[in-house]
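Sample pair:
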Amino acid sequence: MLDIYIGCDHAGFALKEILKENLTSAGNTVIDCGTNSTESCDYPLVAHKLCQYLSLKDNSCGILICGTGIGMSMVANRYPKIRAALCTTELQAKLAKRHNNANVLCLGARMIGIELAKAIVDAFFTSSFDGGRHERRVAEFNQHINIK
């Protein structure tokens, strides 16, 4: 099974706890990067922690949860080895993995319900990168192109 890093801010705490239980009961190892309560906290600190762990491990993946998922995805995508995707549907989760080789799933706890979140997580972790023409495009993520 997988080693999955998971982190959230206060808005995502309840959803994180539910997802941790589902992922663990499916046989995955879940590494909790915080936060550990509904007390207000700064989401960038959690995202930085999770992304630093992932940057050290090849073939690792994670889930970041905040109120909208937007802030977490913005922080995560600042890291060179991170390909974070904010997903609100199962299809987005599948394609984020299949076409973009996403390694971090971002969720908005205030945007989607629990059952949809579970389905999105399942779609993300049961999909795999298609490779082929997508490999070239993913490689271009870290290229700096001068636009004239």
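The two ends are 47 Å apart (CA to CA).
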